[in-house]
Specification:
The chain is of the alpha+beta class and 304 residues long. The chain folds into three domains: 2-35; 45-169, Putative xylanase fold; 174-303, putative xylanase like domain (putative xylanase like fold, Roll). It has helices at 2-6, 15-35, 45-54, 62-71, 77-90, 119-131, 135-146, 152-155, 173-179, 236-245, 286-292, and strands at residues 95-96, 116-117, 184-185, 194-195, 209-212, 226-231, 249-258, 261-268, 280-285, 296-303. Helix 3 crosses helix 7 (135-146) and helix 6 (119-131) crosses helix 7.
Length: 304
Amino acid sequence: MSRIRAQAGPRGISPRRAWSRAVLLALLAVAGMAGSGCASTAPTALARAQSRAESADRLLPVAREDSLLAAEQSLPTGARVGLWARRFLAADGVRYLFGPSPDGYVAERELVRDHRQDCISLLYRCTELARARDHDDAVAIALRTRFAGAEPDSVVDAQGRVDYEHPSHLDYSLDMIRSGHWGADVTAAVGAAAVDTVGTSRYPAGSFAYVPKTKLDEAALREGDVVWFVLDPDVASARKLRDQYGLVIGHVGLVIVEDGQAWLAHAAVSGLSGWYEGGTVVKVPLREYLARVERFAGVMVTRF
């Protein structure tokens, strides 16, 4: 009897059983704390970005946006891009603001800033919403595409803001085209494409092709196509952008088709006499725009 008691703990419980009981009680205590809200997990980078976007400057209330997204899930992506372009065209209070300018989406490090648009942010939002299941999914798509290949933790801060200076952000439109995140390159299918023979300080001559403005087959364009305007090296202002900044693309917009005619929906900083005053999201027949704006030699086109 004395030997048995020498190997036992209080009330005859062995040390091993007493230790196991203590571990079990500790685990139950932790579980109880979590259930009562005393323990919590920090929100993920995606959750932080989604929370910030939900309370951002939005074109539509979240509930209305989600309702539209749910109702349009069966439509082709291009058709959905066109619908969102039309919504931005019809909305009140949308003004042009270059992203890096004070209060712009880049300067403020926002994913959603719907009433302040430049040509790239309009492309972002229309194509993100067109592919999304709901407003949160649109934010997830934004992070996957605007910051291609980056982990959300590397680009989203504690307040849900994003870092447009991060190396993963695609700063050049030709890189955006080549990434495939904004549709497949269908340039060769919409006209007689020509290889660029001049190049830029970033992209060598012969490394890309585009459709000269007089060779574009308008009938080949579809609702929701993305039109990227190629800078004309024979125009001094456009050549400067090529040589000093390496740019190929000087502007971007979205195709909407009305009565069989391709129209350009885009965020315009300035006016086009007879069509619009600028400073907001506007539309104009694509043919008219190409004929009137001399700094562009032609277009590249991507399609969802």
